[in-house]
UniProtKB/TrEMBL annotation:
InterPro entries: Homeodomain-like_sf, HTH-type_TetR-like_transc_reg, HTH_TetR. The keyword Nucleotide-binding does not apply. Residues 25-44 bind DNA. It comes from Nocardia stercoris. Keywords: DNA-binding, Transcription, Transcription regulation. Residues 2-62 form the HTH tetR-type domain. The lineage of its organism: Bacteria, Bacillati, Actinomycetota, Actinomycetes, Mycobacteriales. One of its GO terms (molecular function) is DNA-binding transcription factor activity. This is TetR/AcrR family transcriptional regulator. Gene3D superfamilies: Tetracycline Repressor, domain 2.
Length: 202
């Protein structure tokens, strides 16, 4: 079973990288993985699920890289930027696939295994963002429950900003702006807003 799943993953990853999400079919994946189409659907029920299978691993790897880079950065803006930058860099390798992945991740069938795994990665990212934000108020002592809730909400806002940066090629918005520079400016604003409100929460 693992050997078949490994073949499916390898073929799907290669085809998506070579042709892009729109040009790949499940039949091509099953043919090149040398398995029946019915067998393929036991592992991934649709092309969107195949993409989630592949890109969840890219997301996980980028998240691990970013977390490692952010670990020793004291400034929250710098730490958050370091955490998110590898995700943007990985996404830029194939905008079409990234946009399709974000669509499947946020709007795909709720019961699908690979979507659940992807959303768990989003939750992990949001939690990491919230913990970094809490360092901005660490000098006032142990964070209160209200501050933790504010950090949780701000972490979700930061993911929303990241999502818009990832799908920007499909919207045509601000085509001449560097996405990393824009994201850094938005991070700065959100951190400043969190700092301004969190210090008053008890």
């Amino acid at each position: 079973m693992r050997e078949k799943q490994g073949r499916i993953f390898e073929v799907a990853a290669r085809l998506f990288a070579e042709r892009g999400f729109g040009a790949v079919t499940t039949q091509q994946v099953s043919d090149q993985a040398d398995i029946a189409a019915g067998t393929l659907f036991r592992y991934a029920s649709s092309k969107g699920q195949l993409l989630l299978m592949v890109y969840n691993e890219d997301f996980r790897s980028a998240l691990q890289t970013g977390a490692h880079r952010a670990r020793d950065i004291a400034d929250p803006v710098g730490a958050i930027t370091a955490l998110l930058r590898p995700i943007l860099v990985a996404a830029a390798r194939n905008s079409e696939n990234t946009i399709a992945y974000q669509r499947e991740l946020l709007f795909g069938p709720p019961e699908e295994t690979y979507r659940e795994q992807g959303l768990a990665l989003v939750a992990q990212l949001e939690s990491a963002l919230a913990e970094i934000l809490l360092t901005a108020v660490a000098d006032s002592g142990e964070p209160t429950a209200a501050q933790r809730e504010a950090a949780r909400v701000a972490g979700r806002s930061l993911f929303a900003v990241l999502h818009m940066a990832l799908v920007r090629p499909s919207t045509g918005v601000h085509p001449h702006h560097d996405p990393i520079d824009d994201l850094s400016a938005q991070i700065t604003q959100l951190v400043a807003g969190f700092r301004a409100t969190a210090v008053t929460r008890t």
